[in-house]
Each structure stands twice: as C-alpha cells, then as structure tokens.
Amino acid sequence: MDTTWLSFLPDFFQGLVVALGIGLVLGLEREHQQSTEQYSFAGLRTFSLMSITGYLTAHLAVQTANAWLTPLVSLGVLLLITVAYRAQAERQSLGITTEIALFISYLSGNLIAVGYPGEAFGGAVVVAVLLSLKTRFKRFIQQISQEELAAFLKFFVLIVLALLLLPDAYFGPDNLLHYRSIGWVILLVSSISLTGYLLLKFGSARYGILGTALVGGLFSSTLVAWAFSARSRETPQLTSLFSGGILLSSSIMYLRVLFLTSLFAPQLTWQLLLPCALMFLVSTVVVFSLSVSGAKYKGLDAAPDIPLGNPLDLKNALYFAALYVGVSLFMHYSRQELGESGSFASAAFSGIADMDAITISTSQWVQRSAAYRYAAQAIVVAALSNTVFKTLLVLARSHPLTRKQTLVGFSLVCLTGVLWLVLY
C-alpha cells in the first residue's frame, strides 16, 4: 500500500481511510447536487459505505485467494443499483448518473485493495469534477450552434489522427521530417484557433484574445502570429487586441529561452538575462498600450454584429503545416551549404520558425565549449530572425492596422536586440 502520508497506520487501515475518503468526495458532491430534489438515491453515507464495501470485498478476496468473491459481490452491487434505478424510473426520474458514480465508488474500493490507492483517489476526483460541472455543461451545450458542434467533433477526430493514426516515423532528406510532429503542428494551430474562438464567444474580447495569446505563446508564438493575423481581418473592430496578442505571445518566447537555458546551461542564462529582459519589457509595454486602446471593445464579442469567424480553421492549420515543412527543408539545405560550424547565419536560419530547438542545442553545445558569450549572441540572433519571420507573416496576412501596430512593436524589439549585439 503506497500511502506514505498514512504510514503510521497498519496497511489495512491505510486502505480503509483512502476508501472512506473516496466515498466522502463522491457522496458530498451527489448529496449537494440532489439537495433540491424530492427524492435522492444515494448520498454521503451510501457512497462511503459502497467504497468501503468494494475495499473490504477485494481485500478479503486477496487474503483468502478466492478470485470468485469480487465478481460475485460486484454482480450483487449491480443488481442492487438496477433495483434502485427501477424505483427511480417509476418516479419519472430517468437519470442514471448517480448510479454509475456509485458503482465507480465500489470499483475504487476494489482498486485500493489491489495496491492502487493513488490511482483510485485520482479517478474519484476526476469523476467528482465531471459531476459538479453538470449545470455548466448544460449551459454550454445550449449556447453552441450546429457549426460549433461540428467543429468540436472535427477537433476530436483531428486529435485521433494526430496522436494515434499518424505513424511515429521519420521521412524526407536525412529523416528530417516526422509524420506525428507535423500532426502536432496542425493540432496546435487548430487548438489556438478553437481556444480563441471560445474565449471570444464566452468571455470578454480583451481577456479572451490576450489569454489565448498567453497560452499559445507557451507553445509557439509563430503559431499565434499566424492564427491571429487571419482573425484580425475577420474582426477589424478588434485589431488592436489581436496586435497586442501577437506581441504578447512573442514576448513569452524570451521567457521560454531563459527557462530552457536554465535547465541545460545556467551560466548561459545570466548572459541572456539582460537582452531577453529588455526585449520582453519592450514587448509588454507595447502590449499594454494596445490593450488599453482596445479596452473599449470589452464585451463586443457578445454583440451580434461581431463575426466570430470559423471555430476550427483547418485550412489555416494545413497552410501553416505546409509552411513548417518548407521552412524545415530550407533550414536543412542551408545548413548543408553553411556547415555545422555554429555561425550566426546558421543560427538565424535555425531560429526562423522554432526557437526551442536552437536554444536547447546551443545550451548543450556551450557546456562543452564554454563559449558563453558567443552562444548568447547566437541565440539572440536566432530570436531576432524569428521576430523578423513573424513580422513577415503579419505583413502578408493581417489587417492593415494590425500590420502597422505589430510592425511598431516588432521593430522596437529588433532595435533593442541589435543594439545589445552591437554594444555587447
């Protein structure tokens, strides 16, 4: 029994306490949910007793080596729940959620007895959260349209395609490309599009867009720049917010650089602290000014004349995946011509679409060479290259006002980085 926080108790009582806790968690949620109903099937005590029953049954089966005991009692529990459901159905109450949760409580007790207390308690918490979201789920379902429902279904199909059906294999020159990685790119672009749509639909425009940019920037600011550029044309009323979102996601890139270097080469982090902090500060100042100028649009997303766009822009995601493949091939052949000497030109090519790879590889290389000054300069060059690439994306795809605002922010960032390179 792996419950070190209960190690002062004998093994049997450790499992008993965990089983009781699971019953209390599920029973408390069901008791509260059914407090307004005239008839309730099971509450705090019933769930607690059921989880303890499951634990005692499986524990006895293990101790006495009677493999038939657990299935037999499980069958009895199912018959009991069936009888209770029939009684509820006669009262015109046809829901079966509580009955399923009660059987899960019993199975959780079984799971504890065979040595998985943490998994049982974690599963119970997930079930309790799902049960507690009943009202919010209903409200959400009532507000979505047929097109939005189709978008959700497409997104789940995309998850299956990207994670399960695409082969875990490399292809292309020198096995440069990976099928599942390309699937991940498509999935990430689609998830940014869908997240932004939902935040814009159910929240305020300002916090919805900037929240999406903040989350998307943790994965790839280039993806956010691609998605938000298209959205700025669809909703010109919110161009300032989309511009701020593009710059905000880009500013997260500098924090990612500092985090990754701190993991692989902490001394390099100190070399990069000043330029990354300065470029982050410049970006956030511009984001703040754009957010303030776009604050008057707070709540406009609820107005019927504001188009929300396509909830799942698969065409946009496929375009970006094609761009990702093209940039990867370009970087590969450029490195073949320039060699792997770690030149600034190679760093610039490497940073075009992805900063994480060049940051990690440079951090690992600098541990062997100790050329921290040169490594810091190479990473800053890669960051500037990435910023220029995002600027070109915005100029090619976004609303004219977004082009202007983003160009100002990215130009200030590039100027800051170039000045540091020159002075350093």
Verbal overview:
This protein has helices at 11-33, 44-64, 69-90, 97-113, 117-132, 134-143, 146-165, 179-202, 205-217, 221-234, 239-264, 266-293, 314-338, 344-350, 355-369, 372-397, 400-423; strands spanning 170-171, 177-178. With 424 residues, the protein is mainly alpha-helical. It has 2 domains: 4-139, no CATH class; 145-423, no CATH class. Strand 1 and strand 2 (177-178) form a beta hairpin. Helix 2 (44-64) runs antiparallel to helix 3, helix 7 (146-165) packs antiparallel against helix 8 (179-202) and helix 15 packs antiparallel against helix 16 (372-397). The protein is elongated, with a radius of gyration of 28 Å.
Q: What best-fitting shape do the alpha-carbon axes yield?
A: elongated
Discrete helix count? 17
Please identify the structural class as seen in this structure. mainly alpha
* Uncertain ranges: 297-307
* C-alpha termini separation: 58 Å
Q: What is the total number of structural domains?
A: 2
* Number of DSSP-assigned strands: 2
Strand content is: under 5%
Helix percent band: over 70%
> What is the H/E string?
HHHHHHHEEHHHHHHHHHH
Q: How do the strands line up in the largest sheet? A: 1-2
> Radius of gyration, Cα only, in angstroms?
28 Å
Q: Which sheet architecture does the biggest sheet show? A: 2 strands, antiparallel
Average pLDDT, all residues: 78
